[in-house]
């Protein structure tokens, strides 16, 4: 699954992916996104995700991640709620409880 946003806000990109991986840590893993020569900034702890910025890639700005099912896990489906910064913080608070 590709998760792509046209936002420069990490709350709508990296934070959503981190939330998903936290919820589905045994079932979902990141795979490295290839840029195919388009200038991009690597994101995430291992640099698997990418962020295209207007200055570097002549785009309006994009975040791209590739999430795959981990070997041996069951089929899963999850849709995170609204991706706003406030909502992301509420999800973090819920995950700590």
Could you explain the architecture of this structure?
- By secondary structure, this protein is of the alpha+beta class.
- 27% of the residues lie in helices and 24% in strands.
- It has helices spanning 14-23, 54-57, 85-96; strands at residues 2-5, 28-31, 41-43, 49-52, 62-69.
- Strands 1, 2, 3, 4 and 5 form a 5-stranded antiparallel β-sheet that branches.
- The model is unreliable at 79-88 (pLDDT under 50).
Q: Poorly predicted ranges (pLDDT <50, ≥5 residues)?
A: 79-88
**Biggest sheet details:** 5 strands, antiparallel
Through-space gap between termini: 28 Å
* Global shape: globular
Helix and strand composition category: alpha+beta
How large is the radius of gyration? 14 Å
What portion of residues is helical?
25-40%
DSSP summary: helix tally: 3
Q: How large a portion of the residues is in β-strands, by DSSP E?
A: 15-25%
H/E series: EHEEEHEH
Count of DSSP strands: 5
Integer average pLDDT: 79
Record keyword descriptors for this entry.
24% strand; alpha+beta; 3 helices; 5 strands; 97 residues
Topology at a glance:
Elements: E1 2-5, H1 14-23, E2 28-31, E3 41-43, E4 49-52, H2 54-57, E5 62-69, H3 85-96
Antiparallel strand pairs: 1-5, 2-5, 3-4, 4-5
Helix pairs in contact: 1-3
């Amino acid at each position: 699954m590709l998760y792509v946003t046209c936002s420069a806000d990490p709350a709508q990109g990296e934070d959503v992916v981190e939330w998903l991986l936290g919820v589905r840590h045994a079932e979902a893993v990141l795979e490295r996104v290839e840029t195919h020569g388009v200038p991009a900034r690597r994101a995430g702890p291992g640099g698997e995700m990418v962020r295209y910025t207007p200055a570097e890639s002549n785009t309006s700005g994009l975040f791209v991640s590739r999430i795959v099912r981990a070997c041996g896990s069951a089929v899963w489906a999850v849709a995170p709620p609204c991706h706003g910064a406030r909502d992301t913080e509420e999800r973090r608070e819920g995950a700590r409880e």
